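[step 3/7] fold_predict: job queued, chain A
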Amino acid sequence: MWYNNSKHYSYTLHQERNYIMGKIIAFANQKGGVGKTTSAVNIAASLGVLGYKVLMIDLDPQGNATSGVGIIKKSLKTTAFDLLTTDATVQDVMIKTRFDNLSIIPTNTTLARAEYELADVENGEFVIKNKLAPVLDGFDYIIIDCPPSLSMLTVNAMVASDGVIIPMQCEFYSLEGMSQLMFTISRIKSHYNKELNVTGILITMYNNRLILSAQVLNELRKHYADKLFETTVSRNVKLSESPSFGLPVYYHEKRSKGAVEYLNIAKELAERI
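[step 4/7] structure written:
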């Protein structure tokens, strides 16, 4: 069961801060299985619940963000691939979801071909940035779900973005990958997008009963204390099963731990950027 509850919040966050429209946030981590897409979908939906107008772009050829909001990938006539490789505009490929204030540019496996198409385009790193420029005033947030790789699609997303959110698990392999991702962000910042910053590091699938989780979290606090979101995302049954229903967790079970955590993270994000 899903609910329309945006009126309950009555645009509170809009009233509480000086708000700048059209912020673009890339969700990126070259390591798969860290809750990247889950976080992109649920933060986008939670921002919509809070009253913000949100566009989510599914830039991962797996298309899980697309199916995560209940869209059947086989039925799509236009996708992110068309946006990247043809004259199609955002309006041509955008779909309004059934969730509050949330639209999506969907994708399917055809997006994998975009890597080769963009490689032959002059200034191919700027395609998404240029396509989004005319619609920035129409959205409060644009959320981009990047593929789990440091590919041309990820570079395109970061070149267009104001900030990057890095979802990660509390594992030592994740710490190793963090330095590589930070280096990539630094390179893109110096060569293509001087405004790019790490908006936040989001801990997912957190288990406070595991000593290893606490150790990794402590290491992150030593090096990235100012970047860590205060709220962590716990392992949660309702959160895990919501994609199979094509629902963000808030619309699957708004009282669940996962729904509450992602709503709190969305509030944190709105205060940061």
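[step 5/7] annotate
Residues 249 and 255 are 9 Å apart (CA to CA).
The two ends are 31 Å apart (CA to CA).
exit 0
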